[in-house]
Specification:
single chain; alpha/beta; Rossmann fold; Arc Repressor Mutant, subunit A; 2 domains; five-stranded parallel beta sheet; elongated; transcription regulation; Sig_transdc_resp-reg_receiver; WH-like_DNA-bd_sf; DNA binding; transcription
Length: 202
């Protein structure tokens, strides 16, 4: 499994969590600041991020705002030594997995980590599938993209030929190439592989 990242400027907290996680056979790396993490790591390398809200320099909330621009962001748990209900509610609404007050119950934290690992596995699988699809779409020529957009509206070859002012034979050639590049064998397979993709994204 990918390691867990603990980002906290309190070395005692980092050490305690490292001992806890390693007891559960979870690899873990500690970072003394948000800046250290950003300079040394990529969020996608981890299965879960444990982030202290209040740190010297960049805060945990500022780090999270920065990481939301990453290609892939694993589940995040915030830790804080200061109870702040509005902050917790806002963070969870913003996509944070959980918000725990220090000193947190280790049993509760372990259960939350287990939920994060499960969430990461599901999310990463979907993310990898989308990355693969994006790469295949990128291989299409501009004309193939035009034909694909028409295919996704349900138009027949003759209608596409008329719309794009090309021959039906040319449409058939482009259609065959699209199927090959997107690794599908039928119109149904094409629709299934592009489920959730907006025509404007093609």
């Amino acid at each position: 499994m990918r390691p867990i990242a603990v980002i906290d400027d309190d070395s005692a907290v980092r050490d305690a969590l490292q001992i806890l996680f390693e007891a559960h056979q979870w690899p873990v790396f500690g970072f003394e600041s948000a800046e250290h993490f950003l300079n040394e790591s990529d969020a996608s390398e981890y299965s879960c991020l444990i982030i202290d809200v209040r740190m010297t320099g960049m805060s945990g909330l500022e780090l999270y705002a920065e990481l939301k621009n990453a290609f892939y962001l694993p589940p995040v748990i915030f830790l804080t030594g200061h109870a702040d209900v509005p902050m917790a509610v806002a963070a969870v609404k913003d996509g944070v997995m959980d918000f725990l007050e220090k000193p947190c119950d280790y049993g509760l934290l372990v259960s939350r980590i287990e939920a994060c690992l499960s969430r990461d596995e599901e999310a990463r699988s979907a993310w990898n599938a989308r990355q693969s699809l994006d790469e295949r779409l990128e291989s299409l020529t501009p004309r193939e993209r035009e034909v694909l957009r028409e295919l996704l509206t349900g138009r027949l070859n003759k209608q596409i030929a008329d719309e794009l002012d090309i021959s039906i034979k040319t449409v058939e050639v482009h259609r065959a190439r699209i199927y090959t590049k997107l690794k599908v064998r039928s119109a149904g397979g094409l629709a299934a592989s592009l489920k959730g993709v907006q025509i404007s994204e093609i």
